[in-house]
Amino acid sequence: MIRKYMAERLSWITFFIFLHLFIILVAYLDSAIPVQPIMYIVFLSLILFCIFLIFRYKKETNFYKRLEAREDNLDLSNMAEPDSPFERIIESSINNQTELLKRTAERSQMTLEQEKDELLSWIHEVKTPLTAMHLMIDRLDDGMLKSHLTYEWLRIHLLLDQQLHQRRMPFIENDLYMENMNLETIIFDEIKTVQTWCIQKGIGFDIQLDVTEVLSDAKWLAFIIRQLLTNSIKYSENTDISIKSHIHEEQTILEVADCGRGIDSKDVSRIFDKGFTSTSNHRDSAATGMGLYLAKRAADSLFISIDVQSELGAGTTLTLRFPKRNDFVNITSM
To answer: Which residues cross the membrane (predicted)?
Structure first.
């Protein structure tokens, strides 16, 4: 701050030094003016100027020090009181700008909330004709046509479901309800949802659940498992997907393993990034890069860790590691 203050007052200091050097020069050139008294006056003036500069530094920089140390937010309660007219101009400008930003932020928040509500309403309205469409598909006699239409219907259903949960994700803490639930029931319900897709791709399931009960949120856990299953089904064909659960170090472990195309080692660390699809199959238009990202966000809110092990061309294993029972004190306190 001292260096900044000196730079700010450099023109004054330069003028003061130049003025006194000019006085000394005049005294030196004019023999009628005694040089020694002039030098004494200049010396006293320099001391007084330094004292004045120190005093003004403390007074003038107090406001700016507080301004510099202030946190970058819209709270102006901790801002120092201005002492000079120029400081009052700065304070007035900051207050006006802050009020403008607050009004803009409020309008933007209201617009986002309105768009979110409209989208959620639209998703719920679309589900009605989708349900009717599914009933109409079930009445078809042509097995091949029925299979293809059911697959396309399922894709729409899963995308709408993903969009619905994505919009609810910022407020997931308000929607959590922790309870003991049957893991087997959730898994079988999710498999039943994608059954037609699995039949079309020749995919079966090898299920070995040593642990069938977990403490979590049923709706969001089902969403996480749904994303893991759809990810495995999407990149597998004519193979079995293995689903296993066991206890390891007092934690429940759920593994979903497939023998699909696998993930390149350079992509493994990025598969949970928003919008990331692949570098080895970058032209795959079916991938959205949102499924595992949303699953990871939901899992973090439930204190569930997701790990991935994969080898290109050999398959992928996604592991859910549930928290210990004592860790749920943090979750239920929400």
So the answer is: 12-29, 35-55
Paired with 307 in beta bridges are: 319
7: Cα separation from own chain's centroid: 41
* Helix residue spans in 72-142 (DSSP H): 85-138
Cα-flanking dihedrals φ and ψ of residue 261, to 5°? Answer: -75, -15
Distance of CA 47 to the CA centre of its chain: 57
If DSSP codes are grouped into helix, strand and coil, which group holds residue 288?
A: coil
240-248 and 204-209: which strand pairing? parallel
Structural contact between residues 227 and 294, judged by C-beta atoms closer than 8 angstroms: yes
C-alpha to C-alpha distance for 286 and 231, rounded to whole angstroms? 11
Length of the chain: 334
Q: ∠ CA(296), CA(297), CA(298), 5° rounding?
A: 90
- In angstroms, the CA 198 to CA 292 distance is 19
* pLDDT tens digits, one per residue of 149-198: 888 888 888 888 888 888 888 878 888 888 888 999 999 999 998 888 88
